[in-house]
Amino acid sequence: MPPNHDAALEWLALTTSAIRSADPNHPITIGLHMEDLEEDRKLGPLEAGQFCDFLCMHGYPIYSSWSRGPKDALLLPFLALVTEWLGNREVLFEEFGAPTLPAQPDEDLTRTSTTLLAEADAAEFTASALSLLLDYGLLGGFIWCFGDYARNLWALPPLDQAVHERYFGLWRSDGSRKPAGEVVAQFNRASPDPRPRNLDWIDIKPNQFYESPAQNLRRLYQRLQSMVEQ
Is the pTM of this model over 0.90? Predict the structure, then answer.
């Protein structure tokens, strides 16, 4: 994390300038995470939006203590829309997904507090997430990740400690496709009923957000939920 906002802005200026001097044609982005909205980590959408052509967000309901549960797909467009609002840049949802319970026993799972979903539940979450990201007009979404890790890699970092990371794949380690992989294969990329880009649930200004980021994020999500449920 940068020591302060000025250091973050200086780093962004130097880095993007160096990239553009070598390649003025390709757009530049940076990966932001849910934690960059939950707290002021000195380099967030407000800073990145001044230098990047578009922004990226990573987010997982399983890692959120304030989501509605591990299958809360609405959390993804919410995080993206807040990022877009703060940074004044379009957003690609660069990383989302869900680890699944393995068919074969893995005794190491007793060491994790992270929720693993049944494969059918992960497929349901994936379908909802893709549809919502499309409906809300995001640039796109990338799923973490291609495949589960083979057993002979489990003793290596980070899989030795982050046990749930072994099982985020759309494919199992034996090469067979999970139901979530089938969802992606069949996904319709044309939204029949796009949602209006209504940000009326945001009742503060961008420069007020980081005065109490965690509280503001939770409150704004409740406001969005109420609007969606009407």
Answer: yes
